[in-house]
Amino acid sequence: MSWYDRIAPLYDIGSAGSGRPRREAVAQLRLEPGDVVLDIACGTGLNFPLIEAGIGAEGLLIGLDFSPGMLAKARGKVQRKGWENVRLIHADAGTLSEELLKEHTGVGRVDNVLCTLGFSVVPDWEAVFARSWALLRPGGRYAIMDWHVKRRNPFSWFLNSISQGDVSRRTWVSLEQKTEDYSYRTSIGGNVFVAAGTAPGAASGALTSVSR
């Protein structure tokens, strides 16, 4: 059993303080009814209610995570809420591809990509960003919310221990280099950031090839 499988039952309690930056990250996606959203390292589905409020029943929410335990919690939320437009994918984020999405959802490209508290944890996060960026349609929005603690101290040691990650990573840099109208804001004493931007190219509404 992986570390995240072990902590899945208590994850929502431990993440209670991340509500405001999560809301900010989802708001930065500028969701519209019918949008197709990829939530990378979706965990227990803490972002799902915020995303669903934006995309409506006609949209599609794709949640991807490597932990069966976390996905089980997310699946429970989906079932309790009766969301029929959610597709959960158990896979390593490093295998993200158009083929993977089509296999599980029938959709190969997405309108929005979100990653909250994921890039500080997943190995080879630069490659995961590149793979997910390739799935974003021109004019689509990408948002990241994550920890960033500049100096090694007891707080960063604690975060790295409970997340099994590296909170010193500058995980916003790749997004900054790629996007138009890039924005970056911090909260929680400057230790949490929300970065977002738009993929270059004309946007002409949400994808229409949604398969349910």
Report on the architecture of this protein.
This protein is of the alpha/beta class and 212 residues long. It has a single domain (3-198), classed as Vaccinia Virus protein VP39 (Rossmann fold, 3-Layer(aba) Sandwich). It has 8 helices and 7 strands; from the N terminus they run ααβαβαβαβαβααββ. It has helices spanning 3-14, 19-28, 48-55, 68-81, 98-105, 125-133, 154-163, 173-178, and strands spanning 36-40, 60-65, 86-90, 110-116, 136-147, 180-187, 192-198. α1 (3-14) crosses α4. The longest helix has 14 residues, at 68-81.
What's the layout of helices and strands?
Blueprint (H helix, E strand, L loop, with lengths): L2 H12 L4 H10 L7 E5 L7 H8 L4 E6 L2 H14 L4 E5 L7 H8 L4 E7 L8 H9 L2 E12 L6 H10 L9 H6 L1 E8 L4 E7 L14
Parallel strand pairs: 1-2, 1-4, 2-3, 4-5
Antiparallel strand pairs: 5-7, 6-7
Helix pairs in contact: 1-4
